Amino acid sequence: MTDLAPAHAPATEPGWWKGDASEPVRRNLGLATVLVALVVIGVFSASDQFLTSGNILNILTQASAIGVIALGMTFVIIGGGIDLSVGALTALAAVWCTTVATQEFGATGMVFTAVLVGTLAGTVNGLLVAYGRLVPFIATLAMMVGARGLATKISDKQTQPVEVDAINRFAEAKVVGIPALVLVFAAVAVAGWVLLNRTTFGRRTVAVGGNAEAARLAGINVRRQTVYLYALCGLCCGIAAVMVVAQANAGSSGQGDLYELDAISAAIIGGTALTGGRGSVVGSLMGVLAFTTITNLFILNNLPTEVQNIVKGAIIVGAVLVQEFQPRELLRRR
Prior knowledge:
It contains 14 helices and four strands. It has a two-stranded antiparallel sheet. The protein has a two-stranded antiparallel sheet with strand order 2-3. Strand 2 and strand 3 (178-179) form a beta hairpin. It has a single domain (39-324), classed as ABC transporter involved in vitamin B12 uptake, BtuC, CATH 1.10.3470. The protein is mainly α. The protein is globular, with a radius of gyration of 22 Å. Helix 12 (259-269) crosses helix 13 (281-300).
């Protein structure tokens, strides 16, 4: 008797490098390649200015505030949501912490106020989405309009100068040659990475964003987790508000304008899926650095802002197309 061959030979399993587990690594390497390419462009287009230590620190400093917000946005998007109000929350926290009454409590009072305002506003977003059952886009759009309006009302359309020396000196402070703003950014980034990758909070976030119903059946309180995520994003806005105020030495209702677009863009090109359930803190950081470096290159080469926005828009579209294309490739391999 002859052995009967199976009707279908088993498919060859792809190696680790081509599997799902390596996807974040491959994406981060791709972003690193983009950053290297931007550095090369900077060397050739502005060799006497780009690679100076002062310019590198300037890029990192400019990326700090929006980077902190992008980290909070990354958590929200991984959890299946979106937050359009981060720029307005930053302005509201900045204005509230620079009122004359708040400044009387000194630097500690200003920082506490900014963080508290941001966190409470973010919590309201979470409650509207989780318990009010509003679509995240609508809930946070309403908060964006309301928070910006409240900031304008509190400041009476005026810029509020900061009289607290500790806050004014903070943006210029350095530790072993590294700006304090960059160190704050780094500390938040490390905390965010640990929270996402080494805690049950991070695993619950991924589970809720990947499949909320399955997460609920697994015993996760989806609504409470959603509130936590938006509160975390608001907390990041409060921290960023202090950084923005320190750089400007003032609070204004116009601060944080379009921060939501920069934060969402950085998260997307960093590999965070708009559908939720997948994302990377490291990827978001690289996305922020990529956009900040592009802005820096355009400034050094005296290129118009409108061209810069066109380039950024093309990058965002390309990143989304990559996200849409990759799942089909994975399905074909399976």
